[in-house]
Model the fold of this input.
Amino acid sequence: MNNDFIDSKCIQQLIAGDESAFTLVYELYAEKVYRLAFRFLKDREQSEEIVQEAFIKLWLNKEKLSAEGNLWLYIFVITKRLSINALRQICKSTDLTEKLLHEIKHQDNTTEEDVLLRDLEQYADKVIATLPRQQKMVYMLSRDKGLSHKEIAEQLQISPNTVKNHIVEALKTLKAQLKYSDFICILFFFIRP
Done:
């Protein structure tokens, strides 16, 4: 057996509940599952959780496997589904969405990921450009210039609470637009095994 392929005998053993076959599959594919999840999530801890969930699903559904099937393809599909579900959860949380965008910016990206990042940033810039003038200014001073709420309030001569409200509203708009955009689909398309 080479390093990239599990033969039908091993799959049959796995279907029968052989833990050593499961261990072999885990050892062969766990790192690939992690890398795939990380491409989606850009978060080590979440990617490690996806690895655990993917192999738990594999074990719980082992009787549904085909001994002649492509086991990596089965694990790959499970991993993508789990990762997409995790992304959906991230999109429901402003803090997690912002963390994902931050992590995407700070990862060493492949050429495809660089293209996706530029497209995502351009889309976010277009959404930001549609914000009301003062909301846009507050958001940009906070996110681009890194100013605190107090510094922005002093510079624009508004209250810190108004600054906070503008940022919250800007993030809600960004989150809603990203949620309904095609970028989740683009992520799915660009991320290959």
Observations:
- Residues 94-190 form a domain with the Arc Repressor Mutant, subunit A fold (CATH 1.10.10.10).
- Residues 182-193 have pLDDT under 50 and may be disordered.
